[in-house]
Every structure is written in C-alpha cells, then in structure tokens.
Amino acid sequence: MTYIIAEPCIDIKDLSCVDVCPVDCIHVFERILIIDPEECIDCGACEPECPVEAIFPEDALPDKWNAFVEINYAFPDAAKINPLVDKYAEENDVHNEPLE
Ligand code: SF4
Ligand code: SF4
Fold first, then answer.
1. Does residue 25 have its Cβ closer than 6 Å to ligand 1?
2. Is the peptide bond prior to 76 cis by the omega test (within 30 degrees of 0)?
3. Architecture of domain 3-91
4. Which residue among 3, 7, 12 has the greatest number of ligand 2 atoms within 8 angstroms of its CB, and so is best to mutate?
C-alpha cells in the first residue's frame, strides 16, 4: 500500500509533510506533492501534519478523490503527473485558498 495526497494539496504545497517523512519519499511537483508508492513505508507520520487534511492511506481515500490514485502511481513521471493535475483542477474547478 501507500499513502496518497489528494485535492486539498493542490496549489497549497506548504511542505509540512516532507519534514516528517522518515524515508524522504514525498516529492514536489508543479501544483501538488506526490508520495513515491515504492518507497512509502505506510508509517502514517505525514497524515496528521497536513494542515488541509490532504493525506490518506490508499484504502481510506474518499471516493470523490479516486483520481489521485492514478496521479500518485504516475510517480515519478512529471510529464504525466503535471497535466493530470491540471486536468483534474480544471474539471473540478479547484481554487484552494492559500494558507494564512
Ligand atoms: S506514510 Fe510515512 S513513509 Fe509514507 S509518505 Fe507518509 S511519512 Fe512518508
Ligand atoms: S502537508 Fe498537505 S498541503 Fe502541505 S505539502 Fe504535504 S500534502 Fe500538501
């Protein structure tokens, strides 16, 4: 299994999760962070650190964010990930407010 980062991270990217990951498997892409599904050890340390609750164990990801399974497993291919995130954001009218 892996942990998955979903819609609330788009354009927020505050990086709190990166600091706590013991295996450094959370990586920055254009509009979102992505967890390397091969390297993630399912420790759960990142989940409570996210201020916008964007991180879930794969088997607990809300159905409305299923698109992020494909996006996450496209790691590390930025040429796939970045357009998939753009497409998702456009289709779902994502406008996440910047953190204060
Ligand atoms: S669950 Fe653990 S290993 Fe996986 S991304 Fe989060 S902090 Fe890193
Ligand atoms: S802590 Fe949450 S919003 Fe911040 S980069 Fe990680 S997943 Fe994205």
1. yes
2. yes
3. 2-Layer Sandwich (3.30)
4. 12
pLDDT values of the chain reduced to their tens digit, one per residue, 100 residues: 899 999 999 999 999 999 999 999 999 999 999 999 999 999 999 999 999 999 999 999 999 999 999 999 999 999 999 999 999 999 999 999 988 7
Q: Torsion-angle region of residue 46: left (phi > 0), alpha (psi -120 to 50) or beta?
A: alpha
Using an 8 Å Cβ cutoff, are 43 and 6 in contact? no
